[in-house]
Amino acid sequence: MIDAKKTIVVTGIGVISPYGIGLSSLRDGMLRGECCLRQATELYPGFEGTVAVVNALPPPVEGHHYSRSDRLAMAAARDAVEGLSGFDLRESGIVMASTVAGLTEIDPEISRGPAAWYRHGGLSRAASYSVSRVAASVGEHLGILGPACAVSVACASGAMAIALAANMLLDEAAPMVLAGGSDALCPFTLSGFNSLQALDQEPCRPFSQDRKGLNLGEGAAVLVLETLAHAQQRDARILAVLRGWAMTNDASHPTAPQKDGIGLAACIERALEMAACSVDEVGYVNAHGTGTPLNDIAETHAYENAFHGRSRPIPVSSTKSYFGHCLGAAGALEAAITITAMQAGALFPTLRLENPIESSKVDWARGELRREPLPVAMSVSAGFGGSNAALVFGSHSL
Amino acid sequence: MKTALPVLTGIGSVTPYGPLAGLISAEPLEPSVITAWATPGLRRAFLVEPFRPASIVPGLKTRRLDRLSAWALVASSLALRDAGIDLGQMDRSRIAVLFATGFGCVELTEAFYQSAATNGWAGTDPITFPETLSNAPASHVALFHDLRGPNLTVSSKSFAAESALLQAASLLRYGQADMAIVLAGDTLTQAVYEWYEAAHLLSPACFCNEPMSAAGGFVPCEGVVAMVLEPVGRPAAHSYATLGAGCWASGGDAQARVRQLLGDVQLDFTICAGNGAPCASASLTDSGRNLVGGSVIIPARPVATGMGEAGGLLHLLLALSTRPGRGQALLSGASAHGGYAALRLELS
Question: Any chain B CB within 8 A of the CB of A398?
Answer without folding.
Answer: no
